[in-house]
Amino acid sequence: MEFEDDAFVLSARAHGETGAIVDLLTESHGRYAAHVAGGASRRLKPFLQPGAAVRARFRARTSEQLGSATLEPVGEGPAALFDDPLALHGLSAAAAVAAGALPEREAHPGAYHALAALIPALGLPDIWPAVFVRFEAGLLQDLGFGLDLSKCAATGAVDDLVYVSPRTGRAVSREAGEPYKDRLLALPPFLLSAQGGLEPGDVRAGLDLTGHFLEAFVFNPMNRPLPPARLWMIDRLSEAQRL
Predict the structure, then answer these.
(1) What is the 3-state secondary structure (H, E, C) of 46-113?
(2) How far apart are CA 181 and CA 184, in angstroms?
(3) Sign of the C-alpha dihedral, residues 180, 177, 151, 205?
(4) To 10 degrees, what angle do helices 109-121 and 128-142 make?
């Protein structure tokens, strides 16, 4: 079994004296773990940080085997964010969410491209938290749990959509949701349109929204909590008054 593919590093841990087990999100083949010889070396270790872009060549004797990979770094990777600890928290959270949510060896190109859209946005402090919410919404979509924000679930109206049903993930208009608003999730305008703009509280509402469905539909069925890295990111954003 062999393939070559573009990938992002999700995590890496030392294995033996010089090797590493690297968790990769590939563009066409999904999430793969592989042994990387020399992965703990000074030469390779800087390129095995979460979010680093690589060209991966994977090889295994059988489809069940862990397999090995050689990695060729692409671009400067996370080093561009080293002066922005908050953005690094965002990158670590995105990698942890993807690693925890995606099954191994199952193609999810939508998840790959959602991460590919988020990583360059992390260099834009004013917008990346909102792009992070869109990344999680894209991940849910690719896993089959996409939010339906096209019209009101109760009336079919397409205007004044301000809530989401926590049970179905469908949008609800202000008028239809008024009697039940305490039980509905807030729908921030930026998720409806790129021109929606950002108001105070919108990012928090977006993270609450995607976090609810990631927890309910993805992590809880696997008996896992949401990744701690995501909680740490939210704490840091709150401290920086970015929510």
Answers:
(1) HHCCCCCEEEEEEECCCCCCCCEEEEEECCCHHHHHCCCHHHHHHHHHHHHHHHHHCCECCCCHHHHH
(2) 5
(3) negative
(4) 180
Interstrand relation of 2-15 and 19-26 (parallel, antiparallel or unpaired): antiparallel
For the stretch 147-168, pLDDT in tens is 999 999 999 999 999 999 999 9
Q: What is the pLDDT of residues 111-138, one digit of tens each?
A: 999 999 999 999 999 999 999 999 999 9
Query: How many helices, marked H, and strands, marked E, lie in the chain?
Result: 6, 8
- For residues 184-211, give the mean pLDDT: 92
As a whole number of angstroms, the distance between CA 183 and CA 188 comes to 16
Q: What are φ and ψ of residue 158, in 5° steps?
A: -110, 0
The span from the CA of 164 to the CA of 153, in Å, is: 9
Query: Residue 193 to residues 128, 188, 197: CA-CA distances in angstroms?
Result: 16, 10, 8
